[in-house]
């Protein structure tokens, strides 16, 4: 995927959730970019304990900029910030 924001310092992928209709789509797209797999190859977020509708409520267009959430998904660390920033990082072992 060619995303001009996919060059965050130190992160595998950095993008804005505001570029997508749903936050869950932004997350799966970012993970797909990081893993170089199709988003369809990834497990649904609900299967890893993340409610996609809650992500939209917490980090959609009218999100509180002070919010942040971090969770593991498909072997990566996903961080969402209230300003719409989404980062995907390697998990330190």
TrEMBL record:
<dbReference type="InterPro" id="IPR040624">
    <property type="entry name" value="HalOD1"/>
</dbReference>
<protein>
    <recommendedName>
        <fullName>Halobacterial output domain-containing protein</fullName>
    </recommendedName>
</protein>
<dbReference type="Pfam" id="PF18545">
    <property type="entry name" value="HalOD1"/>
</dbReference>
<feature type="domain" description="Halobacterial output">
    <location>
        <begin position="20"/>
        <end position="89"/>
    </location>
</feature>
């Amino acid at each position: 995927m060619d995303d001009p924001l996919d060059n965050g310092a130190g992160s595998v992928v950095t993008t804005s959730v505001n570029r997508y209709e749903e936050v869950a789509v932004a997350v799966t797209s970012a993970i797909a970019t990081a893993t170089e797999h199709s988003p369809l190859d990834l497990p649904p977020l609900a299967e890893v304990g993340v409610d996609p509708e809650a992500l939209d409520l917490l980090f959609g267009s009218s999100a509180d900029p002070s919010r942040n959430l971090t969770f593991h998904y498909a072997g990566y660390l996903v961080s969402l910030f209230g300003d719409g920033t989404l980062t995907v990082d390697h998990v330190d072992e």
